[in-house]
Amino acid sequence: MALRLFITLVSVSLFLSPPAISAGFTPGDIKSWCNQTPYPQPCEYFLSHNPKYGPIKQKSDFLKVLLQLALDRSKHAETNTYKLGSKCRNQREKAAWSDCLELYEYTILRLNRTVDPSTKCTQVDAQTWLSTALTNLETCRTGFMELGVGDYILP
């Protein structure tokens, strides 16, 4: 009976522990690493809510985590963007939507190559593709905003 209670308490405490700690780093670690990025808040959010990222022991680990996170988020954004196609009301909106899909496909292709361990990728290359991913996201959003349909089409 005591063993069963102990196992239950350990299971509950592991389930209720903050995700960042179960991923191998503390909220302080996350804040410290993410403060080195141009956008620390999204970095902190995604690292603390996704236990699959980590542990981060050195700068190269942090870069790998950021690349994987960017790839995962790009795939998520591409899926959401694909679903927006049915909301397009005219050819201009459809063209902006199509451009966004192409940007995401290209971004995902490049990030996949960057995270592939068999591909030689320098830190500068990785930084370039992280920046490009962000630029592509903003380009997509801007395209819809310029058409005046950002609030209607974008989630």
UniProtKB/TrEMBL annotation:
<protein>
    <submittedName>
        <fullName>Putative pectinesterase 2</fullName>
        <ecNumber>3.1.1.11</ecNumber>
    </submittedName>
</protein>
<dbReference type="InterPro" id="IPR035513">
    <property type="entry name" value="Invertase/methylesterase_inhib"/>
</dbReference>
<feature type="domain" description="Pectinesterase inhibitor">
    <location>
        <begin position="25"/>
        <end position="149"/>
    </location>
</feature>
<keyword id="KW-0378">Hydrolase</keyword>
<dbReference type="InterPro" id="IPR006501">
    <property type="entry name" value="Pectinesterase_inhib_dom"/>
</dbReference>
<dbReference type="InterPro" id="IPR051955">
    <property type="entry name" value="PME_Inhibitor"/>
</dbReference>
<dbReference type="Pfam" id="PF04043">
    <property type="entry name" value="PMEI"/>
</dbReference>
<keyword id="KW-0732">Signal</keyword>
<dbReference type="GO" id="GO:0030599">
    <property type="term" value="F:pectinesterase activity"/>
</dbReference>
<feature type="signal peptide">
    <location>
        <begin position="1"/>
        <end position="22"/>
    </location>
</feature>
<dbReference type="GO" id="GO:0004857">
    <property type="term" value="F:enzyme inhibitor activity"/>
</dbReference>
